[in-house]
Write a structure and sequence with these properties.
heterodimer, A: 20 helices, globular, B: mainly alpha, two-stranded antiparallel sheet, 2 strands, 3% strand
């Protein structure tokens, strides 16, 4: 491991170092603001360092067999850090409302980010598993961070138990695959797997790895934990699970299963197609009459990953733009939506009851407009990143001839429209007595600023997606 | 300058954003300034480009600017880009120029309306969309503008949405336009799909034009007809004209800007823009001409029997739009655009004047309750007079030159005296109903209530100055297109030549088809001379019929005010028929609306209640059944979730194994 390798993993080092620093500060009982500022600086420096090392790692930099730093991983690492930064900022006012203990939260937030980053850069089963565990262990605690409330605690325990089951699957799957192929490196696997004679052990191993990954991504039928955990977790943590965590795992899925492992029309392909269709339908159907906004967003995020699977299945020769673009759009939309729920939260409720939003427009028109935009984007409406992202998926699906999935996607876009618009229409209902009851106090300035930035990004890149597309294509080829 | 053409649509968009997003606490004056200045700024940019064009060689008068790639998908790429050439600069000048005047006028007209800010937001948005429509360099961007102006039209027709009639009129306009837009879209898809199958994935006008030779005549006819369906919706032609008269429910300046001067001419612009396609389809051009002519005639007859001052103007607009389509249908695109321009001046003016009359009459619209306004509203009177002379085609006024050009082109292209004849009869009726409106509004005794009579007053300066400017334009606007016959050099046709080419040259060899009168005039000899002679005869004929129309109006409404009543009594049936617009609305209502409602009810009863509800209820009870089991798991039984994971994995493994073994 030379100095060049070290430079390539500077973003990781910065995050890890910040985590230690925040831990020390907590031990020394430093103030809340200080903790947050150090965390934010850590994320900021890490982002800057990514921009600096991009030119140095073209085309790819393999760091021992475990990590690979290339355009692909750097893009998603950047996305994960940016999302974490936004969510860390959102957490600040949310935490202030609920607890005095800040330090531990940010330490865990940083380690969770680190885990996600390792996932995005992993090129080996070992680093994949390490990353996943760093991420998950941090999340167990974060979900139950406000442990004085039974709701939070329950969610944390549920997540812990179920996640452990899925991890067991994953480990056994890895072992079985290793047994058959004799390698744990992704590149080696991608080369050898298509040539291996199919047998029970290999099939079981593959399915178990898929189940492990599918659990983290909340794909049907491994999705049932998601709404419960989202509902119980603090809002920013739910958003983190929906974005950074899922996104990081998805990069592994894409890395592992593209490049010839999934032969079109083969059993794996059909398995993923069925999972994608089921995920879309289940996510959208379950969201239809949901009166809890956090659960609704959980189901919506399940459905969104069904859409992403369509893009994933149409990846040919690493033509990754649709996946990358949609994931970026999904990050913006989901963080935006959860961000607004965070701003609506108060001491007693998490801003998750749908009817707490009734008539919101007449009290907070700008916030409502932003929320409406985020939801419309999730539904794929024009002038937002959501449409461009969906267009890319459609185009990729049609180009690869995945007609079944494209039709399912189209049907689901319509179903999805219903519950997104239902939320919007509730926000625009004029309240009866003329008086508007609002949960939550005045939204924090940081939060509003963040939402404004996200809204601008959402619309700007929705009208003019070229900058993001060119970044993606520069980093990962066309 | 070429790099700055995107500023033309950008300014109104900025105005819209400022007023829309930040304007909640703006005082009215600031809102008004922002709205007006943003449109005036567009006009300034357009004017600057126009002056630059004047200094350039005709062939090089094109500015194109691609702002960014919009949708890139494989081979297909479309951009956000703008194109300013001789055609679009005229449209820009009309839209931003007349738009500025109407914005200023609106400041006075809407001053006491509680929706002041909302009004100006919509109006700015409209100008933005309209300018996008005329400056977009590809069909898709044009369609964005096309839909955008439709949306703004809907919003502004229903501006006073508390009134049922306004809300319904807005809906009607929107729905009828959707039918047209459907045709437009089908045309667009056919065009792109076919060219794409030939390996040319483009929507840009310049590239379409370069590859138009790939399209055979049959396909060109289909595509152009589909686009024309779009035009009949937006530009209120038969059979989709029914929304425009109802659109008068909106504020009057809106009628002036959107439903007279600009938006409704979008169809004419679109055909002129796609002239390279339409040239390939003579059948379509004939259809366009016939539809235009029929609409012109039909709407004019209705216009003669309306009492509502704005409805007269609305039918007149439908009728004049028909003329424009006759022009473009005859391949005389320049003549169509010329009439579009003069019409924007005089019809914009007429609507603003009508607004001024309403202002004076406390909102009264019925001409039977007006009269004698001449003395009390002198500016409105004189400006209306000029506009009426212009639309009636009295020599020397703008409408004379442009209308005559169209009639002559239609005659010479199709060599049919009937086309000319119907056009001229329509012109005569136009003169009649315009002066009928004019005389019964401004002359004679005032028939209003005492109280209203008491309040009659001239509008404030902010409203009369735009009237005067438009009156001047209505007076002199025609002199850019004086035909060679009258010693002019038809500047506007020369100006547009780089866009339309020479294919609109008047046929001079048709003298034979019109012998009877021409022999008397054909003394100068030669084909050119004969052509001119016929043109002169036709022109004189048109002028005489126009003056006759004015004379009859004078006879009916000034000289002998009892005559109309007798006339109505004698031809009661005919009058009722025409006054009720030939019951077309009722016919459409019976066939389409009722039919669709019946279909809808059938769908509701059969599909919705039986099939859909059955499925939904079935699913609901199914879910309720399954839900009982799930709910047990959801109450904290984590094992259930884990079981689902394991079960799922086992099923998938089982599947894989069954495939392998």
């Amino acid at each position: 491991m030379g100095s060049h390798d070290l430079i390539s993993i500077v973003p990781f080092i910065i995050i890890a170092f910040t985590a230690v620093l925040v831990m020390l500060m907590t031990a020394l009982e430093q103030g809340r603001a200080g903790t947050f500022i150090i965390t934010a600086c850590g994320y900021g420096f890490s982002l800057v360092s990514i921009c600096l090392i991009v030119p140095k790692v073209q085309p790819a930099q393999q760091i021992v067999p475990l990590l690979i730093i290339d355009g692909y991983s750097l893009f998603f690492i950047g996305l994960i850090i940016a999302a974490s930064l936004a969510l860390a900022a959102l957490s600040y006012d949310y935490l202030k409302m609920h607890t005095a203990r800040f330090g531990e939260y940010y330490v865990l937030f940083l380690t969770a980010t680190l885990g996600a980053m390792v996932l995005a850069a992993s090129s080996h089963f070992a680093s994949f598993f390490l990353g996943l565990e760093i991420l998950s262990l941090s999340l167990y605690v974060l979900v139950a961070y406000l442990y004085t409330t039974p709701r939070h605690l329950e969610a944390g325990i549920k997540y812990l138990v179920l996640s452990s089951v899925s991890t067991a699957f994953l480990l056994l799957g890895m072992a079985l695959i290793y047994d058959r192929s004799g390698t744990m490196e992704f590149s080696g696997l991608i080369m050898r797997m298509p040539g291996l004679a199919p047998d029970l052990a290999l099939a079981a191993g593959t399915v178990m790895v898929v189940a492990g990954i599918g659990f983290k991504l909340a794909l049907v039928p491994f999705h049932m934990w998601a709404p419960d955990v989202y509902e119980g977790a603090p809002v920013p943590v739910a958003a983190f699970i929906a974005t950074a965590s899922k996104g990081a795992v998805f990069t592994v899925l894409t890395k592992f299963f593209t490049g010839g492992v999934i032969a079109e029309g083969g059993p794996l392909f059909i398995m993923f197609s069925v999972i994608a269709a089921a995920t879309m339908f289940m996510g959208n159907f379950l969201a239809l009459f949901q009166n809890n906004v956090k659960r609704l967003l959980a189901y919506s995020s399940i459905a969104q990953f069904g859409y992403l699977l369509v893009a994933f299945l149409s990846v040919r020769g690493m033509h990754i733009t649709p996946v990358a673009f949609y994931l970026a759009a999904y990050f913006v939309m989901t963080i935006g939506a959860f961000g607004i729920v965070t701003l609506m939260a108060d001491r007693d409720s998490d801003g998750d009851h749908l009817y707490a939003y009734a008539g919101l427009f007449f009290a907070r028109p700008y916030l409502t407009a932003a929320f409406a935009l985020m939801l419309l984007a999730l539904a794929g409406m024009p002038l937002t990143m959501g449409l461009i992202g969906k267009l890319y998926i459609f185009a990729a699906g049609v180009a690869s001839g995945l007609w079944f999935l494209v039709i399912v996607l189209a049907i689901n876009s319509v179903i999805g429209l219903f519950y997104y618009i239902r939320v919007i229409s509730i926000m625009f209902i004029r309240p009866e007595a003329g008086e508007i009851k609002l949960s939550g106090q005045r939204p924090s300035r940081t939060g509003c600023f963040l939402i404004a930035v996200l809204t601008i990004i959402l619309v700007w890149l929705g009208i003019y997606p070229a900058p993001l597309v060119s970044i993606i294509q520069k980093l990962m080829g066309p | 300058m070429a790099d700055l053409i995107w500023l033309i649509p950008a300014f109104p968009a900025i105005g819209f954003l400022i007023n829309g997003l930040l304007g909640i606490r703006f005082p009215k004056t600031l809102t008004a300034w922002v709205a007006c200045l943003s449109v005036i700024a567009s006009f300034a940019v357009s004017a600057t480009i126009f002056v630059q064009f004047l200094q350039m060689a005709p062939e090089s008068r094109v500015f194109e600017k691609t702002v960014f790639d919009w949708i890139v998908s494989g081979d297909f790429k479309t951009t956000i880009g703008f194109r300013i050439d001789a055609l679009s600069i005229i449209m820009c000048l009309i839209v931003s120029g007349v738009g500025s005047l109407i914005h200023i006028y609106s400041v006075g007209y809407m001053h006491d309306d509680p929706g002041f800010r909302r009004y100006f937001c919509y109006l700015n948005l409209f100008v933005f969309m309209m300018l996008t429509l005329v400056t977009g360099d590809n069909v898709l961007l044009m369609f964005v503008g096309w839909e955008g102006v439709g949306l703004c039209s809907y919003l502004l027709i229903g501006f006073w949405y508390e009134k049922d009639s306004a809300a319904n009129a807005g809906k009607k306009a929107f729905i009828v336009n959707r039918i047209g837009d459907f045709g437009f879209l089908l045309g667009l898809f056919t065009l792109v799909g076919y060219l794409g199958s030939q390996g040319i994935w483009t929507l840009k006008f310049s590239e379409l034009q370069a590859n138009v030779h790939l399209i055979g005549p049959g396909l060109a006819t289909i595509i152009t007809l589909l686009f024309f369906v779009g035009a009949t919706g937006k530009s209120a032609q038969i059979p989709l004209y029914v929304w425009l008269p109802d659109a008068m429910e909106g504020p009057t300046p809106v009628s002036s800007l959107i439903h007279a001067a600009t938006m409704v001419t979008a169809g004419v612009y679109m055909i002129a823009r796609l002239n390279f396609l339409y040239v390939l389809a003579p059948t379509t051009l004939l259809v366009v001409t016939i539809v235009g002519l029929a609409t012109a005639f039909f709407a004019a007859t209705i216009g003669t029997a309306q009492y509502d001052i704005k409805r007269v103007l609305a039918y007149s607009t439908v009728s004049q739009l028909g003329y424009m389509f006759v022009g473009v249908g005859a391949g005389a695109y320049a003549a169509g655009i010329f009439h579009l321009m003069t019409h924007a001046f005089f019809k914009g003016l007429l609507f603003l004047a009508a607004g001024s009359v309403m202002h004076a009459m406390s909102g009264e619209l019925d001409m039977r309750k007006m009269g004698g306004l001449r003395k009390k509203t002198p500016v409105t009177y004189w400006t209306t007079f000029i506009a009426c002379l212009a639309i009636a085609g009295v020599p020397g006024f703008s409408g004379f030159f442009s209308k005559d050009e169209i009639l002559w082109m239609a005659f010479s292209k199709y060599d049919s005296i009937w086309f000319w004849f119907i056009g001229v009869i329509t012109a005569g009726m136009t003169a009649f109903y315009m002066f009928r409106m004019f005389f019964s509004t401004f002359h004679g005794e005032c028939r209003a209530d005492e109280e209203i009579k008491h309040h009659i007053h001239e509008s404030p300066r902010i409203m009369t100055v735009p009237l005067m400017i438009l009156a001047v334009l209505s007076l002199i606007g025609g002199y850019v297109g004086v035909p060679a016959l009258l010693g002019g050099s038809n500047h506007i046709e020369k100006w547009l030549e780089p866009v339309f080419g020479h294919h609109a040259a008047p046929a001079t060899a048709h003298a034979g088809g019109f012998n009877i009168i021409s022999t008397a005039f054909a003394s100068s000899g030669g084909a050119e001379g004969a052509g001119h002679a016929i043109e002169m005869q036709l022109m004189i004929g048109a002028v005489i019929i126009g003056l006759l129309g004015i004379f009859i109006a004078w006879l009916f409404y000034v000289k002998n005010p009892n005559l109309p009543k007798k006339f109505v009594e004698k031809f009661h049936g005919l009058f009722t028929l025409v006054h009720n617009k030939y019951f077309i609305d009722e016919l459409y209502g019976f066939i389409f609306v009722r039919g669709l409602f019946k279909l809808g009810r059938f769908c509701k009863d059969f599909f919705d209640e039986m099939i859909i509800d059955g499925i939904v209820n079935g699913i609901a009870s199914l879910l309720a059944g399954v839900g009982g089991i799930i709910r047990k798991v959801q109450t904290g039984m984590v094992q259930g979730y884990a079981f689902a994971v394991i079960l799922g994995a086992i099923v998938v493994i089982g599947y894989l194994i069954s495939r392998i073994l």
